[in-house]
Design brief:
Elements lengths: L1 E6 L7 H11 L3 E5 L11 H5 L3 E5 L7 E5 L4 E5 L19 E6 L3 E7 L9 H23 L5 E6 L23 H12 L3 E2 L30 E5 L1 H4 L2 E6 L15 E5 L2
Parallel strand pairs: 1-2, 7-8
Antiparallel strand pairs: 1-12, 2-4, 3-4, 5-6, 6-7, 8-10, 9-10, 11-12
The protein binds one DNA strand of 15 nucleotides through loops.
Cofactor: Mg(2+); Mn(2+)
GO molecular function, one term: double-stranded DNA 3'-5' DNA exonuclease activity
Organism: Brachybacterium alimentarium
DNA sequence: ATGGTCGAATGTCGA
């Protein structure tokens, strides 16, 4: 089974790229982030004609996540337990950042769009840390109930866990994504039993999944590694390969993120 | 040229 995760930065703007990507790489399950659409705004006809089931979760124009699967999609859950809604001091805004379902042979996959954090002093930064802790709690529960659970946490974590995951640490002084609290929150998820199953095959500086549209970051190879596939022990032992599809960042109409692909053989 | 981009519920914000 081939799974993938991709921050698509608007599914409506890039449906053609999604369809081509699924076909090109023979993908069974694709988790999307930043769909930037409510489900009723999406035309899923072409995906369904290609043999995929789709579950989309979007409540506003900002975020939104989706799961696309041709190997079953059942027991769909939206959002994490214990996650505070945002913003607490405003009204009428609810975010959609997590969606899970069971695919293939009993694999629970979470499509996750971790809050960006904006700036260190912004309330959204504290919200990001609380959100990551809620993710860790849910992930821990899954493995405490069944240590052999097949579970995978995929998506845009908006955290660069290591210095080598950004092109220049000095650029990020005083900025989000690289602070110790964010990295500790990320490590807590890993320490709960969910290893980065892509890094072992693609380690070292310059292995990125995101390049800002601005300032010619992509041609200058100035990127960040913030999109991950974190697998439970049962998933870790099933990984037979992985790659980051840098080609998808090229050309007109690209998302600012590249897809991350993992092959699993249970 | 000392910046350079996108997408959206666009005339501005969030990433």
């Amino acid at each position: 089974m081939r799974i993938a995760t991709w921050n698509i930065n608007s599914l409506r703007a890039r449906m053609d790229r999604v369809l081509a990507f699924l076909e090109r790489h023979d993908v069974d399950v694709l988790a999307l982030q930043e769909t930037k659409a409510k489900p009723e705004q999406l035309d899923l006809t072409a995906l369904q004609e290609a043999g995929y089931e789709v579950s989309a979760h979007g409540l506003n124009q900002w975020n939104g996540v989706a799961l696309i699967s041709r190997v079953g999609l059942s027991d769909v859950r939206t959002e994490l337990p214990d996650v505070p809604s945002w913003p607490e001091d405003e009204t009428g805004v609810v975010e959609a950042r997590a969606l899970s379902g069971v695919v293939g042979d009993g694999l629970r996959i979470w499509s996750l769009y971790v809050p960006n954090g904006r700036e260190l002093e912004h309330p959204h930064y504290a919200y990001k840390l609380r959100w990551l802790e809620a993710l860790r709690a849910e992930a821990s529960r899954t493995l405490s109930e069944d240590p052999a659970a097949r579970a995978v946490l995929v998506g845009d974590f908006n955290v660069a866990p290591m210095d080598e995951d950004v092109w220049d640490m000095s650029f990020f002084e005083g900025k989000t994504h690289v602070t110790e609290p964010e990295r500790a929150a990320f490590r807590a998820v890993v320490d709960a039993g969910y290893a980065d199953v892509v890094r072992p095959d693609h380690e070292g500086p310059g292995v990125y999944t995101y390049w800002d549209y601005q300032a010619l970051r992509f041609p200058k190879k100035e990127g960040m590694r913030i999109d991950f596939v974190l697998g439970s022990p049962a998933v870790q032992s099933a990984v037979s390969g992985s790659f980051i599809d840098r080609e998808e960042r090229k050309g007109k109409g690209a998302s600012d993120h590249a897809p991350v692909v993992v092959d699993l053989e249970f």
